[in-house]
Amino acid sequence: MQNLKVPSLFRQQALIGGDWQPAHSGKTVAVVDPATQTVIGTVPDLSGDETRAAIEAAEAAYAPWKKRTHAERAALLQAWHDLMLEHIEDLALILTTEQGKPLDEARGEIRYGASFVKWFAEEARRIGGQTIPSPTPDRRILVLKEPVGVCGIITPWNFPNAMITRKLAPALAAGCTVVVKPSEFTPYSALALGVLAEMAGIPAGVVNIVTGMPAAIGAEILANPTVRKISFTGSTPVGSLLMRGAAGSIKRLSLELGGNAPFIVFDDADLDLAVEGAIISKFRNGGQTCVCANRILVQAGVYDAFAKKLTARVDAMKVGPGTEAGVAIGPMINEAAIAKINRHVEDALSKGATIVTARRTLPTGPQYTAPIVLTGATTAMQLAAEETFGPVAPLFRFETEDEAIAIANGTPYGLAAYFYTESLKRAWRVGEALEFGMVGLNTGLISTEVAPFGGVKQSGLGREGSQLGIEEYLEAKAFHIGGL
Ligand code: NAD
Question: Which value does ipTM take for this structure?
Answer without folding.
Answer: 0.96
